[in-house]
Each structure stands twice: as structure tokens, then as C-alpha cells.
Amino acid sequence: MRRHLFPEFVGDAALGLAFANFIYITYPDLDPGQLWLLRASNINTERLARVAVRHGLFHFVRHNAPSLDVKVNEFSLAIKK
To answer: Which string of b and e fits 3-16 if b means at least 16 CB within 10 Å?
Structure first.
């Protein structure tokens, strides 16, 4: 059993719910299909990574993979160019 993935599962669900609530309130005239497309285009790995780097949020991510720091640093430098 891979219980270490459970926090990621819950975090993804919480983020999806929070963003769905935000766009539902912000754009009340959009139909469900349009809301789904808006959510899907904003909740993806690359977009979230860019936001995390732009706002320095990646410093607060807990992990147990030293190589991840190197990859995040490389990504951060690449998107700042």
C-alpha cells in the first residue's frame, strides 16, 4: 500500500475544489462545460509549478528528495529567462 501518496491525493482534491468554487463565484454566467475547461486549463502541473516559482511557494513544499531541489532550481532559472 502506498499511503505516502494519500496527502497528494487529498491536496489535489482540495485544490480542485477551491479553484472550482473560486471560478463558480467569479464567473456565475458560465455553463458547467465552460467552468470545467477553465478549471482544467488552470489546474495542471506546469501552470502550478510556474505559480509556485513566481511566488516563492516552492520553498514551503516538504519532500524527501534532494534531487528535487536541483530540478526546481533548474526550472526556476529556465522560466525566468
So the answer is: eeeeeeeeeeeeee
Q: Are 19 and 43 in contact (CB under 8 A)?
A: yes
What sign for the dihedral angle of Cα 7, 64, 55, 51? negative
The Cα 64–Cα 62 span in angstroms is: 7
User: What CA–CA distance (Å, rounded) separates 20 from 17?
Assistant: 5
Domain ranges across the chain = 1-43, 44-81
Amino acid at 43: I
| Highest mean pLDDT, choosing among 9-13, 32-36, 59-63 | 32-36
More confident residue, 7 or 13: 13
